[in-house]
Design a protein that fits this description.
The complex is a heterodimer of chains A (111) and B (420).
Chain A lengths: L13 H7 L4 H9 L3 H11 L3 H9 L8 H23 L13 E4 L4
Chain B lengths: L11 H4 L16 H12 L4 E5 L8 E7 L4 E7 L5 E5 L20 E3 L3 E2 L6 E2 L5 E3 L18 E7 L2 E5 L8 H10 L11 E9 L3 H7 L6 H4 L18 E5 L2 E7 L13 H6 L27 E8 L3 E5 L4 E10 L2 E10 L5 H37 L13 H22 L1
Antiparallel strand pairs in B: 1-10, 2-3, 2-5, 3-4, 4-9, 6-7, 7-8, 9-10, 11-17, 12-13, 13-14, 14-15, 15-16, 16-17
Classes of the chains: A mainly alpha (111), B alpha+beta (420).
Amino acid sequence: MTAPLLPPAFAGLEPYAATWCLATEAERYARRQASTMPVLREFYDACFPRLEEAIAHCDAHPLDDLPDDVLRLLQLVYSLVMVSMSVEIFQQVKATDAADAELHRTGEPVP
Amino acid sequence: MTRWPKPPEGSWTEHYPELGTGPISFEDSVSPEFYALERDAIFKRAWLNVGRVEQLPRGGSYVTKEIEVAGTSLIIVRGLDGEIRAFHNVCRHRGNKLVWNDFPREETSGTCRQFTCKYHGWRYGLEGELTFVQQEGEFFDLDRPATGLAPVHCDVWAGFVFVNLAPEPEQSLTEFLGPMVTALEGYPFDRMTERYVFHADNDSNWKLFADAFQEYYHVPSLHSQQIPGAVRTGAGFECAHFRLDGPHRLVSTGGARRWTLPPEYMYPIERATRSGLVGPWESPDIGEPPPGLNPGKIDPWGIDNFQIFPNLEILIYRGWYLMYRYWPTSPGTHRFEGMLCFQPATTVRERLEHEVAAVVFKEFALQDAGMLTGTQSALESAYANGIIGSFPVNDQEVLVRHFHHVVGEWVEAHRRRAAS
């Protein structure tokens, strides 16, 4: 049994943590692009109902001093945002008609 | 669909009669000859934005900028006196690229007290002066004071750093920007230091990509998913205001803000995060906006989209802004730079609002980038095979018409100068 990655209140999301707690947009986008829609839907369906609660939990901490487990919860929320594009908007992994276009995020704030 | 009043002439296009109303050519976006002319006619004459002062926070801060279309790399550096200067990124000894990090062709940034050439160790101060020559006694008649870095004209407006590659610019930066753009002075660009930066190499001419960001006529078709399927009608979109000033352009949008619509007009992730397609629902107050913002006095106002000639776009969403630059790399390719700039988040919730805006921006920009590869190849085919030479452009696309018109004027003026 590995140590939990997320705050105890979010133990139910642990099965997704190792895959989706990713620090950068580049990693989150790459993970989404390498996933199938059933996998994205399962992640979305498990996490979206906890989203408001997860935001509130993270927001109780100062942005520049998040404990490790809270930081990972925020990264999971970021991944949910990334995956929601596919699940809610496009019903496919990549944006419709984006063809082989790429757009690399090369700078972003932390966290 | 909201109907916004048009000028007394009946259309935005006819309000600017020099533009005409006939079909226009896009051969300027496929012709290698035209591309070669743009290099001297535009990119070696116009003021070009290469960054923001916040990227050069202190004396010794520098960035390098690759400008392929002008065949140059620049060093932009803040001196210990606070001045920002630009130099060609070329060592005066044997022409090595002076400043680079991992790879010579990649841009870099950092802070230093002097620049040291990797090749033979020549050193230059922050004001470009040659300060050290290895084994100086081995040289013949080396005039050290005359062997500083080659300077490039550089000026700053509202924190935007511009360069001009002409030996002597024909206009000062503020003259070039003109009254429409400079009336934005006072907008708190300097407070919006939280940046989400994007780069892409796109398979389309720089102007074709800019075209997709200066008209909203394509939005209901290419970006139909911006409206949730249940309430999607396919109705057209009409912009509230267009304005031209010299080579620069503005379009303002208006209408009910997305988040004031019934909830079904937003996606669940937008409702949960209070952010989305047009950014955070609420931004920190920016005080009284400058007169240049929303000059058409549109109410309710949406976005101001400034197209600053030749390759800079600033989209102002009241409390945050987006900036695009399009750098030509060949007749059919360009490098795109995009930046979302926010006032720094003070809470997780605010940071998440910014993240959502940046994620949504990328998804829809990818649609433009993917499709424009098709525009480029089809236009190349149309001109190569003599099938179609001109294309109708409507009143909602007046800025597209104006952009290609101005590019043509600058190229023609250059031809005349070269001939005389």
